[in-house]
Amino acid sequence: MPVSSRIDFILLAAIWGSSFLFMRYAVGDFGALPTAFVRVAIAALFLLPLVWWRGLGAAFRQHGRAVCLVGVINSGIPFALFAFALLSISTGLSAILNATVPLFGALVAWLWLEDRPNGSRVLGLVIGFAGVALLAGEKASFTPGPSGIAPAWAVLACLAATACYGIAASATKRYLTGVPPLVLAAGSQLGATLGLALPALWLWPAQMPGTQAWLAVTVVGVLCTGVAYVLYFRLIEKLGPSRSLAVTFVVPVFAVIYGALFLSEAVTSWMILCGAVIVLGTALSTGLLRLPVARNA
Predict the structure, then answer these.
(1) 205-232 pLDDT, tens per residue?
(2) Directed axis angle between helix 269-285 and helix 91-98, to 10°?
(3) pTM
């Protein structure tokens, strides 16, 4: 991997890992839906001018409706679900659950696109979901916590969000192949903004969010969404989608570190063990890691 790509890779993992921290700072004042809405609205305002600057206006107009629809599933719903989850569970746990995105992507591609995995990838699916079950089992209580939300609902919200990412990935592959990546990024944020606008305004907090919350949601919109998309698509151009996908495995490392440093979140050995199992299963299920095949003499 070239040095410049390594820098982009680590930088992207560090930025995406911080998104959970900034959402935690914002969601207490804004609420889940308004946090997600402001995030995607800011990201859309950041990315849309880049589309025209790169001369992609015609492509955006041609595919805009489909891209916006996929954006509701790819950004709007997942961002809202993760914001909801962060009201109840730690940023580190949320990030570890987010690492199941490629796992759900492989499962949805199998069921929808009939992209049948081989034996090694099927084993990866089994291992990955076993890790999820073990990790979720520790948080399986439906007793409401201090936030009024049961941890189990927060875990289920994270898994529903990652399932949405998997569905959106297959939808993009089936209906939007060949669409420029920047058009996909900007259009998805615009679609998410339109999809979340009414419910977010309906649930807008009665008290104006504080300065810290506004700064946090601005950073998560510009840096963790807008800039991160640009970095991600640059990695795809240089390394290809499969190798770029590995950034998902590094994101939880940064998220756990940020949570421990800035929020004094506990990092348990059980979280680390289950996270390792999930990463192993995901790597196998996506083909990034392959088991050795025995050959007949």
Answers:
(1) 999 999 999 999 999 999 999 999 888 8
(2) 20
(3) 0.88
